[in-house]
Amino acid sequence: MTALRDPVRLIPLLFLGFIAAGTLLLWLPIATADGTQAPFITALFTSTSAVAVTGLITVDTPTYWSMFGQVTIMILFQIGGFGIMTAATLFGLMAGRGFSLREKMATQVERDRLALGDAGSVLKMILLITVVVEAIVAAILTVRFATQHGMEWGTAAWQGLFHSVSAFNNAGFSVNSDSLMGFQNDPVVLGPVMLAVILTALGFPVMQDLRHNRLRWRRWTLHSKITVSATLVLLAAGFLLILAQEWHNPDTLGPMGVGAKALNAMFHSVMPRTAGFNSLDVGSFYDETLMTNYALMFIGGGSAGTAGGIKVTTFVVLLAIVYSEIRRQKDAALFGRRFGHGIERQALTVAVAASTLIIGTTMYLLAITRLPMEDVLFEVISAFSTVGLSTGITADLPPAGQIAIIMLMFVGRVGTITVATALALGAQRRPWRYPEENPIVG
C-alpha cells in the first residue's frame, strides 16, 4: 500500500502493469497473423517497446501481428505516450486527495512544470492536444494515402491513424515493413509526421507555456526558453550534418534530387532525438552519420513529454556549468537566470547514470554477440533514449541480449532520476556532514 500512496514508486509499477497486460494480450494466438502463439520473449519485447514508446522490434509488425495485435500495440504506445505521470496525477484526483509537498518535490524532475495549473486543467490540456493533433495528422495522412498512393480508403484510414498516434507519442512503430521509406519523396506524409514528433518532443510544460504566453518570449519560463532554443539548434545542426555526411551516399541521399535530399535530411534530424521512424536505410549510413545519431539520440527531447534521452535541458545545464567553470564564474546561468546547485547535481546525475548504463549494456552485448560495435552502440543508445531507430540488428540479438534491451527501454522511459529517487525515498537525511577536503581534479 505504501507504493500506491507514493507517486514516485507508482510510476514504475504502472509501467510494469501495462507492460505485463500488453505482454499477455500479445501472447494470445489471436494477436499473431498466422494464429499461433508468439514466443513469450517476443510478446514481452514488443509490449515493453510499445509502452516505453521506443519502436524497436524483433518481428515485422505488419506481417507478424494480426489486426488485433496491431491495435493492441497502438493502444499500448498511446498509454505510454500519454504519460505515466499524468496517470499518477489522475490516480491522485480519483483517490480524492492531493499530493504532499514531499511527493511533489520527489516527482519534480519528471513533472517539471506540469504544476503550472491544477492537475485537472493539465489533464484537460493534454487530452485536448492529443485528440486534436492526432485527428488532424490522421486526416491528412488518410487522404494522402488514399488519393496519391493507391490505398483503399479503409487501409488508408488505418495507416493514417496508426502513424498519427505513433508519431504524436514518439513511438516510431509503423505498419509498413520499411517504416516510411516508401514515402521518402512525399513531403505531405513526412511533414505532418515531423511536426507531430517535434511538438510532443518539446514536452507538455512548454506547450502550456505557449498556450498561456503565445510567442511573448520575455514571459516564457526559463525551461521553455532552454527547450525551444536548444531544440532549434539541434534540429538545424542535425539537418546540416546529415545532409553533408550522406549527400553522396549511393544507398541513402545520393540518388535523390536536392529537394528530396533536404526533406529526408530534415526528417532524420528530427527522428533520432525522439521517434524511430525512418525514410532512409539507417543500416546504410556512413560511420560519421551514425556518430551524429549517437549524439542526437543521447540528448533526446524536452522534459515531461514523450521524448527520451537525457533531455535537452539536462544537456544545456551541463554545457552552462562547463562554460561557467571555464570563465571562472561562481554561478551557471542562462537568459538572466542562474541555476540552483540542486539542478546542477540532478543534471550531472542523469548524464553519468545514462552513460554508465549505455557503456555497461554495450559491453555486455559485445561479450555475448559477434555484432559490430557501432551497430551495438547504436542499438543501446536507441533503446535507452526510447528512440527506436536501428541498424537492423534487433532481431539478431540472442534472448539474453533482448532481455538487456528490454530492461534498458524500461529504465530509459521511467527515468534514471525517478528510479534513483524511488530507491532513496526511505533514506533519512544525515544530521551531520563530513569535514571538507578536495582531491586533485584533472
TrEMBL record:
MF annotations from Gene Ontology: monoatomic cation transmembrane transporter activity
Annotated keywords: Cell membrane, Ion transport, Membrane, Transmembrane, Transmembrane helix, Transport
GO biological process assignments: metal ion transport
Membrane-topology descriptor: Multi-pass membrane protein
Subcellular location: Cell membrane
Regions crossing the membrane: 12-31, 38-59, 71-95, 121-143, 188-206, 226-244, 294-326, 347-368, 403-425
Coiled-coil parts of chain: none
Record GO cellular component, one term: plasma membrane
Principal cellular location given in the protein's record: membrane
Name of the molecule in the record: Ktr system potassium uptake protein B
Species per Swiss-Prot/TrEMBL record: Paraurantiacibacter namhicola
